[in-house]
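Quick one:
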Amino acid sequence: MPSTSDPPAARRSHRLGYLLAAGAATLWALNGSLARFLLDDHMPPARLAELRSVCTFLVLAAGLGFARPRLLAVRRRDIGRLTILGVVGLAGVNAFYFAAIARLQIGVALTIQYLGPLLLLLWLKLAHRRALAPGLWGAAALSALGCLLVVRAYQPGALDGIGIAEAFAAAITFAVYLFASEQAGQRYAPATTLAWGFGLASVFWAITQPPWSFPLHTLSSPRELAFAAYVAIGGTLIPFACMIAAVRHLPAPRAAVVATLEPVLGAVLAWPIHGQALSAIQIAGGLVVIGAIVWIQSQRPALEVELAPAYGTRRRGRTAERATPGAVE
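Output:
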């Protein structure tokens, strides 16, 4: 029987959701700096995305298979939706993000990627005709502005056209990941969602990039192995689990605004790791992002408006077609 553990409104903890989203942003921020070392050591971006997905899936599948195998069960009718989460959301955002930071400064790539929350709001507004609060739009726009200041993305001299396109693709796939993971979280436990998402992403990578052709020479030193281990566990498994848990307590657009801490923290971490000092305008941008997060926390979520539609719910307010929880079909 599939797990259906999305908490009812009365059991949602907004504070916990914000903390989980902030924790995910912190771990992702460090991931970018360490992943850049692997890319500089000639690890292809798509292979790094493959490593991230496959290692995370193997850890999850082994743990659940041993401790709670029932959590691996899903309904057959949901596999298509979970494929969108795994292939477009997880494999896509990882591949495009790594490709972007190989060509752009980490902060610039992250700034563009974090247009994802605005894209998600537009999707809810246009495709699902949601009447979203003006404050939600304002906080999302303010956080994007703060990120731009932090990473000095307004200076076009250091920008690469292909890298910019890859970063925008990361923004689109990040929005897909947020939307699809929130939908899945309304029916399945976070561990189930992660296992199937990364499992299907791993199948995609196994087909497009066979494991036996993986460039093992790029992981020939203890330093590179340590970085790869963090990318797979500390930079992938734990933060994605935090974010999927966060959207069980918060609507995805709000969790995504909190996650815009990642570019700010990425710039802060780049100071000791890469020797990139912060200027006054970058510090001001960080304060703008923090202000956006405080602003959005002060607004009570309108769950019926901001949540992604559940599986089986048609667009434009039509009658829901939810199946009752039961055995795997």
